[in-house]
Amino acid sequence: MNVLVVCAVAQELAALPARAGVDVVAVGVGPVEAAAGTARALAGKRYRAVVNAGIGGGFRDRCAVGDAVIVDVEHYVELGLEDGSAFALPGGLALARTADADAVLLAAARARLARARVLTGVTSATVTSSDARAAALGARYGAGVESMEGFAVLRAAIDAGVPAIELRGVSNVVGDRATNQWNFRAGAAAAAATTATLLDVLQTDT
Ligand SMILES: O=C(O)c1cccc(C(=O)CC[C@H]2O[C@@H](n3cnc4c(=O)[nH]cnc43)[C@H](O)[C@@H]2O)c1
C-alpha cells in the first residue's frame, strides 16, 4: 500500500522528489480544506500511512526558523470555549480537539530524524499575528509549532483508521508580523528534507 503525503500548497514540498509508492496531495490552506481533502484522498484509495508535511510557525524559545519539527500531539485551538474550559454537549458528546501522532510512526520519526525537535502543535484557521496571542497559546497548550492544517489531517486519518504523523519546517516565528522572520524557503527546505527521510524509513523498515 502507498503512503499519502498531505501538504497545503504544492510549493511547500516542491523539493521533494516524486517516488514510487507515495502519493502527494495538496489539499489547500486551512483546517476545513485539509480535513475535506484528506478524507477525500483516503476514501478513494487505501493507504498504509499519512504524513502531513509543510511549513509552520515556530513559537519563540521552542524552535527557530529553518528547524525541522515532529509534532507529537495537535490541539485545534478554535474549537470550544474561548477560555479553553469544558464544554458540555448533549448526550455526553465530547469535542474532538486533540489528535495524537501514531505511536509507531512517531517512534520511527524520532529515531531517524535525530535533529528534529519533537513539539506540541496547535492548529488555527487564524494565523497568529500578535505576540500576545502567541504567548497565550504557548502558555495554554505548551505549543511549539502552529499550522493551519495539522489537527485536521491527523483527525481525518484517525477517523479513517490510518496511522498518521505531522512534520513541519519552521518558516517564521509565531507572533507580530513585523518581527516574524518570514522565510518560506528555509521552512520548505526543512519540511521536504525531513519528509524524504521519513519516507525512506517507511519504505524500507515497515
Ligand atoms: O505572510 C505571512 O506572514 C504568512 C504567515 C503565516 C502563513 C502564511 C501562509 O502563506 C500560509 C501557508 C501555510 O503556512 C503554514 N504556516 C506557516 N506559518 C504559519 C504560522 O505562523 N501560523 C499558522 N500557519 C502557518 C500554514 O499551515 C499554511 O498552510 C503566510
TrEMBL record:
The keyword Metal-binding does not apply. SUPFAM superfamilies: Purine and uridine phosphorylases (SSF53167). One of its GO terms (biological process) is menaquinone biosynthetic process. It catalyses: futalosine + H2O = dehypoxanthine futalosine + hypoxanthine. The keyword Ribosomal protein does not apply. Pathway: Quinol/quinone metabolism; menaquinone biosynthesis. GO terms for cellular component: cytosol. Its EC number is 3.2.2.26. Residues 24-199 form the Nucleoside phosphorylase domain. InterPro entries: FL_hydrolase_MqnB, Nucleoside_phosphorylase_d, Nucleoside_phosphorylase_sf. GO terms for molecular function: adenosylhomocysteine nucleosidase activity; methylthioadenosine nucleosidase activity. Pfam families: PNP_UDP_1 (PF01048). Keywords: Hydrolase, Menaquinone biosynthesis. Catalyzes the hydrolysis of futalosine (FL) to dehypoxanthine futalosine (DHFL) and hypoxanthine, a step in the biosynthesis of menaquinone (MK, vitamin K2). Belongs to the PNP/UDP phosphorylase family. Futalosine hydrolase subfamily. PANTHER family: 5'-METHYLTHIOADENOSINE/S-ADENOSYLHOMOCYSTEINE NUCLEOSIDASE, FUTALOSINE HYDROLASE. NCBIfam families: fut_nucase (TIGR03664). This is Futalosine hydrolase. It comes from Vulcanimicrobium alpinum.
